[in-house]
TrEMBL record:
<dbReference type="InterPro" id="IPR050982">
    <property type="entry name" value="Auxin_biosynth/cation_transpt"/>
</dbReference>
<dbReference type="InterPro" id="IPR036188">
    <property type="entry name" value="FAD/NAD-bd_sf"/>
</dbReference>
<dbReference type="GO" id="GO:0050660">
    <property type="term" value="F:flavin adenine dinucleotide binding"/>
</dbReference>
<dbReference type="GO" id="GO:0004497">
    <property type="term" value="F:monooxygenase activity"/>
</dbReference>
<keyword id="KW-0560">Oxidoreductase</keyword>
<dbReference type="Pfam" id="PF13738">
    <property type="entry name" value="Pyr_redox_3"/>
</dbReference>
<dbReference type="InterPro" id="IPR024000">
    <property type="entry name" value="CHP04046_FMN-dependent"/>
</dbReference>
<protein>
    <submittedName>
        <fullName>FAD dependent oxidoreductase</fullName>
    </submittedName>
</protein>
Length: 430
């Protein structure tokens, strides 16, 4: 149970007004509240479920951070534990968030779904919710970008006796029926869920996607530590070689499980996991896969080695003493591309879909979205006066959607809000 400053809904007919309304009570929305309170700005946080709901309800039992604990740096609440280079498990993450919730003491209206936001002709915004209507001078959307789970339409044609789960609903191997499991997708969630099942002794078929991978440790240190020293995590999106295209990248797969290690799909294959290419279709009782497994594995390994080579260059440039590093060499190669799998003969009784989410900002009536439904913005500031976004991947830097970078982003957005308030006050005074 959270310690947020829970507010009862207004049951009057009049729309309650706040200077700022924040939509979303995750770490992003609470970070905005932290800085708004610091600035003495009236605001209300609206949360569809309960604060930090996603961390509590949409993570599997063995979930842990893939970034070291020292990167947990929510505003005013850095990690203070005794294992800065470890990786918090699910219950430890929740305890960390509970501490942050209590410290911020945000004004939150929980169980409140925002159904429509639109600009008022007189200025400001109208916010319609399941708990009544509100108006605000400015609105911060902190609901993230992972709203609608992606499940292909072919799922509708699978036999009814096959259990299908989206990654956010997977909990542990014991909750799945006996038999083999097909995991579709090899991003962070897919690779880690496949590992969770594999370690439990389950027969796993993995449809490998195009996700890259990276080393956990290299030349005596966590790769994250090296990249932090190289200032990678401070690189703004407009200085990244891919520019805004980096926002479309799939996260590298690696794990913090059991103290942290690489995830090597080739090694899993040596141990009995069945690897296939991208899942494309179901025809005549057979799953159809693209012939791209070899390229996907090679590409992931190329990224792995390329990151390590950049660390080599940094070490050489600065004359740092470190153990010798060696390139990764594949421990297993596919004999060829297998493009079909008989579903009945495979023994597959359950499928876990791990192919991501789509954003859904259809409830925001504002001319700020591109053709793919993403908001146009610069560091969360949209072209629509008084409308902001926070918590999106690469909003400004790599850490924008993570515990490590949200404080910088939230501080910048609130500075902009404060400037807008000051400008309005000056105009009224004149």
């Amino acid at each position: 149970m959270s310690n947020a400053n829970i507010i009862a809904p207004d049951t009057t007919n009049a729309a309650a007004h706040h200077t700022v309304i924040v939509v979303g009570g995750g770490q992003a929305g609470l970070s905005i509240s932290y800085y708004l309170k610091e600035a003495g700005i009236d605001h209300l946080v609206l949360e569809k479920h309960t604060v930090t709901h996603t961390w509590r309800s949409q993570r599997w039992d063995a979930f842990c951070l893939v970034t070291p604990n020292w990167q947990c740096a929510l505003p005013g609440y850095p990690y203070r534990g005794d294992d800065p280079h470890g990786f918090m498990k699910k219950d430890e993450i929740i305890a960390y968030l509970d501490g942050f919730i209590a410290m911020v003491d945000a004004p939150v209206l929980e169980h409140t779904e925002v159904r429509k936001i639109k600009r008022l002709a007189s200025g400001g915004y109208f916010v319609s919710t399941s708990n009544g209507d509100f108006t605000a001078d400015q609105v911060v959307v902190a609901s993230g970008g992972y709203h609608t789970p992606i499940v292909p339409r072919m799922a509708e044609r699978l036999p009814n006796d096959i259990v299908q789960l989206q990654s956010s609903h997977y909990r542990n191997p014991q909750t799945l029926p006996e038999g083999a499991v097909l995991v579709v997708g090899s991003g962070q969630s897919g690779a880690q869920i496949a590992e969770d099942l594999h370690l439990a002794g389950r027969k796993v078929y993995l449809a490998v996607g195009e996700a890259p991978r990276c080393a956990r440790f290299y030349r005596g240190r966590d790769v994250v530590d090296w990249l932090a020293d190289m200032r990678y995590y401070d690189m703004p999106v407009d200085q990244h070689p891919l520019r805004e295209g980096v926002r479309d990248n799939t996260n590298h797969y690696v794990t913090g499980r059991d103290g942290g290690r690489d995830i090597d799909l080739r090694r899993f294959a040596l141990e009995g996991m069945e690897l296939y290419g991208r899942l494309d279709d179901l025809r005549d009782g057979c799953l159809q896969f693209a012939p791209n497994l070899i390229d996907a594995l090679d590409s992931a390994d190329d990224t792995y080695n390329r990151i390590n080579m950049s660390i080599d260059g940094f070490i050489d440039k600065h004359g740092i003493e470190a153990p010798v590093g060696v390139p990764y060499e594949p421990v297993w190669q596919p004999e060829g591309e297998r493009t079909s799998l008989d579903l009945a003969e495979s023994g597959i009784t359950s499928i876990v879909w791990c192919i991501g989410f789509r954003p859904d900002f259809s409830w925001i009536d504002a001319p700020v979205f591109n053709g793919r439904g993403y908001p146009a913005h610069v560091r969360g500031i949209t072209p629509q006066a008084g409308l902001y976004f926070i918590g999106l991947p690469w909003l400004h830097t790599w850490g924008s959607g993570r515990f490590s970078g949200i404080a910088r982003d939230a501080g910048h957005v609130v500075d902009t809000i404060r400037s807008a308030i000051d400008a309005t006050s000056t105009s009224l005074a004149a």
